[in-house]
Every structure is written in C-alpha cells, then in structure tokens.
C-alpha cells in the first residue's frame, strides 16, 4: 500500500476545511428583500398601488389656499373610501417631496402653510394612535412613524425626593429634631434623572 506524502495530507485538510467553511451572507440578503418578506396578497398590492397612483403626478400647490383645498380633498377621499391616509400619500397629494413639506412645516413659506401641515399631521397622528389602541396596527410600526413623522420621543421619568442632611457629630436629639422639622415643613424637592440610593444609618445610644 503506497504511503501518502506530507503534501497529500495537507491537501486533504484544506479540502475538508473548505467544505465545512460557513457561507457568509451577502448584502441585499433575503431578509432585506421586500418581495420575499411581503405578506400582502396580489389583490391587496393592487389596491395599495392604485391608491398611491390616485395622487401621482399632482402639481405642487401654488399658495396656501390651494394647500388647504388639497388637504381637504385628501382627508375627504379617505373618509369616503376607507383607505389608510399616510404622510407619504399626503405629500403626493400636495405635489411635493417629504423634505419640501417638512420645510413648509418649519415656516419656509408662511405661518399659515406651517399651521396647515402641522394640523394635517396632527390628524394623521390621531388616526395612527386610534389604530394602535384598537390593536389594528403593530405597536412597533406606530412608534416608528410617531418618532419619524409626528415628533414623538421617549420621555425620561424624573424622581422627586426630599433630602435631609445628617451631619457628622450630631447628637440623637439633634437628628430627631432635624427629621421632625423636615417632615412637618415643605422641603425643597431635589429633581434628578439618576436612580435614588437610600442609605439608612443606625445611631447607637
């Protein structure tokens, strides 16, 4: 029986290692594919596309009055059809990009235009909130849209505590008097956004 050379063993090891090597995922993998992950039926997709095309190629509004008329038309359309109004569709209805509408909201045109956009987004936000409360949309979707379109943000809770100063060398009577004074009067609250650590000191007689 012929014996294997050292180079033959090395070739065998390389071949086995290549067979067991895990395959790295590529950019644009299946997890990021809308087509592969979309659960909508062809009928639903047809309805969504037709809904968006209804507002396609609208000319940009020329003045505040036309902006108001478009917004009224927009909400009236969805009140009658039962579709879902969104910020994206509202922008299509106004004939402007999301960035342009955002600029209007921040006063790039007029204070009236800014108020119209803010009020329209307020209506959209209330619709989204109602759908979320009724369990008709995923809460994660509601939170994402709220933060990106409606100015929602995480709120940090503040702990309000009353501080009693106990100094070194104080007698038991002085400590007792200080505690009684603080409990009977309105002490100035200390507001902090960090966890409160309670320390209990035992005073020996």
Ends distance: 95 Å
Number of strands: 2
- Give the averaged pLDDT, no decimals: 76
Name the overall outline: elongated
- One letter per element, helices H and strands E, the order comes to HHHHHHHHEHE
- In terms of DSSP E residues, the strand content is under 5%
Structure report:
The chain has 205 residues and is mainly α. The radius of gyration is 33 Å and the shape is elongated. A two-stranded antiparallel ribbon has the order 1-2. Helix content is 55%, strand content 4%. Helix 4 (64-81) packs parallel to helix 7, helix 6 (98-105) crosses helix 7 and helix 7 packs antiparallel against helix 8 (139-149). It has helices spanning 6-20, 34-37, 42-53, 64-81, 87-94, 98-105, 111-133, 139-149, 172-184, and strands at 159-162, 189-192.
Task: Give me the secondary-structure topology.
Layout: H1 6-20, H2 34-37, H3 42-53, H4 64-81, H5 87-94, H6 98-105, H7 111-133, H8 139-149, E1 159-162, H9 172-184, E2 189-192
Antiparallel strand pairs: 1-2
Helix pairs in contact: 4-7, 6-7, 7-8
Quick structural summary:
By secondary structure, this protein is mainly α. Helix content is 55%, strand content 4%. It has helices at residues 6-20, 34-37, 42-53, 64-81, 87-94, 98-105, 111-133, 139-149, 172-184; strands spanning 159-162, 189-192.
